[in-house]
Amino acid sequence: MTEIQIRMFQIMPLGDSGVGKTTLLNRYIDDSYIPGTAITMAQLRITNVEIEPGVKVKLQIWDIGGVKRLRKMIPLHIPNTDGFLLVFDLTDRESFANIKNEWIPFLPESSPCVLVGHKSDHKHRCVSREEAEELAKELGVSYVEASSVTGHNVKEAFETLVQQIYREKKKQEPQKQETGASRSCLLITGDNICRCSLPLVGNRAWSSC
Ligand SMILES: Nc1nc2c(ncn2[C@@H]2O[C@H](COP(=O)(O)OP(=O)(O)OP(=O)(O)O)[C@@H](O)[C@H]2O)c(=O)[nH]1
Questions:
Q1: What pLDDT was estimated at residue 40?
Q2: CA 206, CA 204: separation in Å to the nearest integer?
């Protein structure tokens, strides 16, 4: 019998309108590239990731449009968000400057974050890797250059963040176990039987897997 741990993390890509947040999500979740997507209002996407043998994460991703009038929705979601992708467009210097000017101010201190230089396939790049790495160092976060056109490093960007969240959560775990925050259950799917450790909500263990 295999023991499987199921966790739930919530993440949010942040960045100016047009940097490619929705396209990045489409590439990560559906492995598809849909050019010229319309401005997003807000949508919740869900996917599953195995982060190490026996540990699965149900990943909820809030995609909120980067235009100014939609930004008031962001603080509503921040308290439930475990980590952020700070996305800028490598062909747009303003979107790079806005990471510090517009997006960092939304974040609680020490939030797990990955800085993503997006559209790395584009010929007309105007932010150098050195500048971006310098910003990442200043912010104390990892830096990944990705392209949703080619798919290059898209998985890496999301999974670097998920691993970071996982490490942070594990640090807080001994305290959770003392309060009995999870319950071991048998999960039967077809011919497979596995043991899962599920979080307790109130006094119930739950899973939507
Ligand atoms: N060259 C190139 N273009 C891309 C890439 N990703 C997205 N685009 C284009 O960038 C434009 C904006 O992409 P979106 O995904 O709509 O941007 P967004 O950040 O979600 O925009 P909002 O919903 O307004 O916040 C679209 O025309 C995409 O086709 C990429 O990796 N390379």
A1: 80
A2: 6
